[in-house]
Amino acid sequence: MLSTREIHKHNNSHSCWVVVDGQAYDVTEFLDHHPGGANSILRYAGRDATAEYEPVHPPGTIEKHLSKDKHLGPVEPETQGDSASTPIVQYDSDKPIPLSTVQNLTEFETEAKKVLSKKAWVYFHSAADSLNSLDTNRRDWTRVNLRPRILRNVARVSMRCRLMGHDSSLPFFICPAAQARLGHPDGELCLARGAGRYNIPYCSSTYSSVAHIELAKALAAQEKGGALLWQLYVPTAQEGAKQLISEARRLGFKALVLTVDTPVIGKREEDDRYKAELDHAAGLTVERTTSTTGEAPILRGVHSSTLCWDDLSWIQKEWGNTGPVVLKGIQTAEDALLAHEAGIDGIYLSNHGGRQMDFAPSSLQTLLEIRRYYPHLLKEMEVYLDGGVMRGTDVIKALCLGARGVGLGRPFMYALSAYGTEGVCKAIQLLSDEIETTMRLLGVTSLEQLSEFYINTAALENGIVKRIDVGASGSIVSKL
């Protein structure tokens, strides 16, 4: 008879024994073939698994799947009764749960809130006014359903694609979001490392809390791939923009992502309230600035409030042939067409994560609007989007509608805040897993196979505008 001591020695993936109903079995070679995964056996390696095994397996299952030489014989009576029970899981409510137990992107927000300062939480979490745009971003993804096809060979799946000049391993990228060091001492370095390890693009903010040259070094250090894209807020002085573009070129950024939805900063009540609380505590009274000359500063004007279509020519000239120029913040079909007429390489549909204008359309609504009125743009331009994306199914839905790739911002900020670089990597893994699984369940093996026939947008179609701003000739009325 086998002893308790001998059974306990074989408690890992290299030598895994389990006891079931008084008999010991060597299941080492069976681990990778178990339908429930190797871990479902390894949890009970070197122990009695009877209580876990018997309720879910028909009699004779072990005999059916294991050869006789893996039947090791009876065990001593004291080993029996050492039955492994399911452990009671308890975590400290004030600390993030173990990263290995995080199962989806939504959980990163919950865990990040435990460790973020109020200042950081407010900055990452805030959105415009009544939060309608923020809520619409998430809700609209739930109004599009999938249409799976069956009986197709989906053993091999490829998620490779080309995003903003980069051959990416996955069809999503990390959105620009500033001040990541509010969440973690390494800040945006966590994002650059994750992008490098998994060969996806990272679009860094103009206001990165880590110097762009350090981001370039961090990406290069991974030696696995990835790409850096430069998000540009145009300053009030044109020379300032030229200097930023020059720096992006010098550091080897692959694309210029020009943000065009911030002539002023949106009214974010959560953020404004926090600042007002700080001012009150400091005894400060802040009044709106006025001018005796009639030239008062532009309310909430941080970036250029004069930026217009004509400025694209000098911006494109400064950028040269370095890579694609993409306009971020497109929210109507009309402006999508104007971008195309201006010779822009790509458009990035976004309402700034719901942070700019309340009751703005979701990027998904804008994409459907473009499909309805100017479907040719989806073939003649690169189209990207972000906003409320939390699942791999969301990415698939966007690609089915003609988007080239999808961006995610807040989930990665929450992931790095709670877990640093490894949190970013886990977020990428989770999303990759969901996309790959969804592709197989849809019956496709490459992103090129995705089309409108794999989705049902009927629930969202009624919300698309019935008319757009065109003249008698069918062209857009003006650029004003």
Characterization of this structure:
- Strand 2 and strand 3 (23-26) form a beta hairpin.
- This protein has two domains: 4-74, Roll (Flavocytochrome B2, Chain A, domain 1), CATH 3.10.120; 99-285 and 300-461, Alpha-Beta Barrel (TIM Barrel).
- Helices cover 36% and strands 13% of the residues.
- By secondary structure, it is α/β, with parallel strands linked by helices.
- 41% of the residues are buried.
- The termini are far apart.
- Pfam families: Cyt-b5, FMN_dh.
Number of separate helices: 18
- Write down the overall geometry: globular
By DSSP, the count of extended strands is 17
Radius of gyration, Cα only, in angstroms?
27 Å
Main sheet characteristics: 8 strands, parallel
Organism: Saxophila tyrrhenica
Domain Cytochrome b5 heme-binding: 1-76
GO cellular component, one term: mitochondrial intermembrane space
Subunit structure: Homotetramer.
Question: What is the structure about, briefly put?
Answer:
The protein is of the alpha/beta class and 480 residues long.
Descriptive tags:
480 residues; globular; Flavocytochrome B2, Chain A, domain 1; TIM Barrel; 8-stranded parallel β-sheet; single chain; alpha/beta; 5-stranded mixed β-sheet; 18 helices; 17 strands; 2 domains; 36% helix
